[in-house]
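Q: Given only this backbone (60 positions), what sequence would you predict?
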């Protein structure tokens, strides 16, 4: 077995303003991904952001 990975402390860097959040709209993505899993409101989500991720050395 492998050793558990080290814990990396994190903090909130940015938050999507409430004025940009979409509510009361169904999302096919959430409907597909969350089947059988608890969500705040069935098949809804206020936002979805995706972007590149880099490690500490700057590798994509």
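A: Predicted residues:
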């Amino acid at each position: 077995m492998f050793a558990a990975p080290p814990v990396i402390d994190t903090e909130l860097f940015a938050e999507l303003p409430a004025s940009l959040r979409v509510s009361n709209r169904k999302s096919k993505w959430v409907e597909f991904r969350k089947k059988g899993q608890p969500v705040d409101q069935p098949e809804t989500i206020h936002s979805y952001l995706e972007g590149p991720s880099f490690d500490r050395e700057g590798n994509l």
